[in-house]
Design goal:
The structure holds 3 protein chains of 3 kinds.
Chain A: H1 6-10, H2 13-37, H3 53-64, H4 79-85, H5 120-128, H6 130-133, H7 155-164, H8 171-175, H9 177-194, H10 201-204, H11 207-217, H12 220-224
Helix pairs in contact in A: 3-11, 5-11, 9-11
Chain B: H1 4-10, H2 31-52, H3 58-75, H4 88-106, H5 129-138, H6 148-164
Helix pairs in contact in B: 4-6, 5-6
Chain C: H1 2-30, H2 37-59, H3 73-95, H4 104-123, E1 126-130, E2 133-136, H5 140-159, H6 161-175, H7 182-196, H8 211-223, H9 225-238, H10 243-248, H11 250-273, H12 275-281, H13 285-314, H14 322-355, H15 367-373, H16 375-405, H17 419-422
Antiparallel strand pairs in C: 1-2
Helix pairs in contact in C: 1-2, 1-3, 1-6, 1-13, 2-3, 3-4, 4-5, 4-6, 4-7, 6-13, 7-9, 8-11, 9-11, 11-13, 11-14, 13-14, 13-16, 14-15, 14-16
Classes of the chains: A mainly alpha, B mainly alpha, C mainly alpha.
Chain lengths: 236, 194, 426
């Protein structure tokens, strides 16, 4: 009987478990370990910078609100995708993405190149009520974010931890994280007011501001290294 | 644990059929199962070299798509005057495009919201056909996106043909230099810590 | 909302049933009491506490955003504790078994315990910021690669192997027929667990992941079809000669349909991993439909069947109403078909519209047009989901009635050993 050899194994719990463990380890090791050490071979992209303190807070709001459930941040190398969204996603872009936010479905459009695509005021209105901009949109309104004050109590700690993980923040940036974030928020709010939006005192320091700062950053690092990635309508 | 043996007493006796009464036969595995499995392995044996050894890469695949598209684009030079001016069918189509794309920022009546008014007398980037086409196709720095790759030339011209038919206003509208709050660019991301 | 939904289904319902079913089956297959009742109780209460904590923390927006691993680090630590408790209890029982050979179901549970431990630990490595916030130690592409190694294999080893274990135990018990082929069990067990672990990168096709890794992920997915089908074959062929019973017994019907959906989605999955198909299906509702044909069709139906088997026996009574179970079967199947079909159509529609181009190479549709186009399918999908859910309510009622008519104070010595964990299976 060809299969008799297996019978003794069925009587040995430990051996069986060890063999099982070996079987499950092989595939993972071959696929996970090499890419990790191939890091050096991934093209370093000169323009890519870590997020500013405010953008980082905006990103964490993006995570908290579950934006990634409906919006991908990964553009595949098809012309139909780059026409719609811009330059396809490159390996070296993600070095400051913790965690990654590729997403897995597009109920809404991809956002990895949305930075600079619309004015701040567009986002401000769109967060208040997406239907004001696009009547057929199925995105929920996020007006409450503009009534929720941005919490900067952990910002400095976040930068510290990220620096310990290898993000090149300087001492000054870590020390000045809160001041930097407030300054940038004031900048965004001023731009909004220049565009004719009326902001209350709370709204000027609201979470929406951080979220807009984050969204306006997305994809800009690539677009900014001139000449702006020229091919195929990238970085629209 | 107390009472443990009681529980065990309830379980099948050693002389009962093994494994809680579950029996197993040892029938042959159907031939088609083996053959199909080998077929999938064979498939992989061809698939891997096909992608790994023929120089295929997704970057190259992408480059080829772009080349093909550029060839098509090059064969049809863009006209400098709107070819659809006054064409009723085209204007109707242009209205559709305007409603889905342009109205989001310029409002359905083009009086301006985030983007400037398109019915006032003031044109930020010129109002010749070529200028307008350039504005829509390639975008403008203050926040106007480039629409060429998404819409193609034809839809842009049709949308522009529709836009001409909208009722005009002679007052400076949103975005005009005399109106409050001239449009400003989105705040560029400052370098960290700046 | 979505993470709450996936976490509740996977960790709340499925894993709850798996704990219950494996405790139940293991004791009978080993002919000993669980290693430690205390550990069983810890497992029950801590696990349910975790589920509550998970729901609350996700609703508060405390999430790592990594799919199926959204929970923040203190909960991750608690999950590790539960898993260790479960493992010690499981292997402790195994070591003291009074039965020489280990039955196939036990093999699959062993694979589950080991693999999930490995996946959970490596994917959840994070640097805490505060009590409810942390950053992954991996960045960007590497994070994605690890995540989908986890994500894919969580499907494999939480939603496939333990359920196969349930099938291998409860199917022959209910139908009272021998398993079709032991050697098929051997072949498909080892090939399944070996090949499964390679297939993760098929979630990252056309991503920046190196081409070779994508290709491996894809080919191993295709090679996985037949090992997966080994389980289906063994299940369906065990039923051969007893189809008249399948027609009248809702538990067997659920098993049969569940196993069929298993076969279907394990074929669909690898097809979607092929580069050409994936370019269409990725990011669309098709993926969601696929997940649900697996989760509702295979996992849920087999779990339902197992619960219908276990609960009357644990409370020493008969099922309150076989007819209601029958109703549950039909609503579940109908809901499933409506749901999966609408998602399939809407996914393909989305994919085709995204890539449609005009003669001059420009895109035909704007994104919002694709949103509007699939709205009707979203409604159909909701109907399908509601029908499926109504069946679950029928089951809850049926089970509650069953427990009510059963006697909690069973005669001394007859208390079924699985009683404790069952309350954990919601």
């Amino acid at each position: 009987m060809a299969w008799k050899w297996h019978a003794p194994l069925e009587g040995k719990g430990l051996t069986f478990s060890i063999l099982t463990a070996l079987a499950i380890l092989v595939g993972g090791m071959i696929e996970l370990i090499p890419p990790y050490f191939l890091q050096g071979t991934i093209d370093p992209i000169p323009g890519v910078q870590p997020y500013t303190a405010l953008e980082l807070e905006g990103r964490d709001i993006y995570i908290r609100e579950g934006c990634v459930n409906c919006h991908s941040q990964m553009i595949r190398p098809f012309k139909t995708e780059t026409d719609r969204y811009g330059q396809y996603t490159l390996p070296g872009e993600g070095v400051y993405e913790r965690p990654f936010l590729y997403g897995s479905r597009r109920t809404g459009p991809d956002l990895s190149r949305v930075g600079g695509k619309y004015p701040n005021s567009w986002h401000w209105i769109h967060f208040r009520n997406p239907r004001e901009i696009e009547p057929r949109s199925n995105m929920p309104p996020y007006e409450f974010l503009s009534r929720s004050e941005l919490d900067l109590s952990l910002t400095q700690r976040k930068l510290e931890v990220l620096a310990s993980l290898g993000h090149p923040y300087t001492e000054a940036q870590i020390e000045g994280a809160v001041a930097d974030a407030s300054a940038q928020a004031a900048q965004v709010a001023a731009a909004l007011e220049a565009d004719g939006q009326k902001l209350g005192e709370l709204e000027r320091r609201s979470e929406t501001i951080a979220l807009i700062a984050y969204l306006q950053r997305l994809g800009r690092d690539l677009a900014q290294s001139p000449p702006a990635v020229a091919s195929a309508g990238a970085a629209q | 644990m107390s009472g443990q043996d009681d529980y065990v007493a309830e379980l099948p006796r050693p002389d009962d059929a093994n494994r809680d009464g579950i029996r197993e036969e040892d029938n042959d595995i159907p031939g088609w199962w083996w053959w199909t499995w080998f077929a999938t392995i064979l498939f992989s044996a061809f698939y891997i070299p096909y992608y790994a050894l023929t120089g295929w890469s997704q970057e190259r695949m992408y480059a080829e798509q772009v080349e093909a598209a550029q060839a098509i684009a090059a064969s049809a030079p863009a006209p400098t005057a709107n070819p659809f001016r006054g064409d009723a069918a085209a204007i109707a189509e242009g209205q559709q495009v305007f409603a889905t794309i342009c109205a989001a920022c310029h409002k359905p009546d083009a009086s301006g919201l985030v983007g400037p008014s398109l019915v006032d007398p003031y044109w930020k980037y010129g109002d010749s056909d070529a200028d307008l086409f350039q504005t829509v196709a390639k975008g403008r720095p203050a926040g106007m996106p480039a629409w060429e790759s998404q819409l193609g030339t034809e839809k842009i011209w049709k949308a522009l043909a529709f836009m001409e038919t909208l009722p005009k206003s002679d007052q400076p509208g949103i975005g005009a230099p005399t109106a409050p709050g001239a449009a400003s660019a989105p705040a560029a991301a400052p370098a960290p810590g700046s | 909302m979505r993470p709450i939904h996936t976490n509740a289904v996977i960790f709340g319902f499925t894993l709850g049933t798996v704990f219950a079913g494996s405790y139940y089956g293991l004791q009978r297959l080993c002919r000993v009491r669980m290693f430690s009742d205390t550990l069983s109780r810890i497992n029950l209460w801590l696990w349910n506490a975790i589920i509550v904590a998970a729901a609350v923390s996700l609703m508060l927006g405390k999430t790592t955003s990594k799919e199926y691993a959204e929970l923040e680090w203190p909960i991750d630590v608690a999950i590790t504790v539960v898993w260790v408790v479960y493992a010690v209890n499981f292997f402790g029982t195994l070591a003291r078994r009074r039965e020489k050979g280990m039955y196939v179901a036990i093999w699959f549970w062993i694979a589950t315990i080991l693999t999930i431990a490995l996946l959970h630990i490596f994917n959840s490595l994070e640097r805490p910021i505060s009590w409810m916030k942390s950053y992954s130690i991996y960045a960007g592409l590497h994070d994605a690669n690890i995540q989908w190694w986890y994500g894919h294999n969580a499907v494999g080893f939480l939603l496939t192997t333990p359920i196969l274990g349930l099938m291998y135990y409860f199917l022959p018990k209910q139908i009272n027929r021998p398993i079709y082929s032991h050697r098929l069990s051997i072949v498909h067990f080892w090939s399944l667990i070996f090949i499964y672990m390679w297939a993760g990168p098929h979630h990252l096709i056309y991503s920046p992941l190196p081409d070779w890794a994508q290709t491996l992920g894809m080919t191993f997915s295709v090679m996985l079809i037949l090992p997966s089908w080994g389980g289906m074959l063994n299940g369906l062929l065990t039923m051969r000669g007893a189809w008249d019973r399948v027609r009248t017994d809702p538990i067997l019907k659920m098993m049969a349909v569940g196993i069929t959906f298993y076969g279907m989605s394990t074929f669909e999955g690898p097809m979607m991993a092929v580069r050409t198909v994936n370019s269409l299906s990725h990011f669309t509702n098709w993926t969601i439909g696929h997940v649900h044909s697996g989760a509702l069709g295979w996992v849920a139906l087999v779990c339902f069947a197992s619960l219908y088997y276990m609960i009357p026996r644990l409370w020493h009574t008969k099922l309150y109403s076989v007819r209601l179970a029958e109703v549950h079967f039909w609503t579940a199947t109908l809901g499933l078909v409506i749901y999966v079909t609408s998602m399939w159509i809407s996914g393909v529609t989305q994919g085709l519209m995204w890539r449609a181009v005009n003669a001059d190479g420009s895109l035909t549709y704007t994104f919002i047009e694709t949103v509007a186009a699939i709205r009707v399918y979203d409604v159909i999908r909701a109907v399908g989901g509601a029908v499926f859910l109504s069946g679950v309510f029928v089951m809850i009622y049926n089970v509650a009635k069953t427990i009510q008519q059963g006697s909690a104070a069973v005669p001394a010595g007859a208390l079924p050993p699985g009683a404790v964990p069952v309350a954990g299976g919601r």
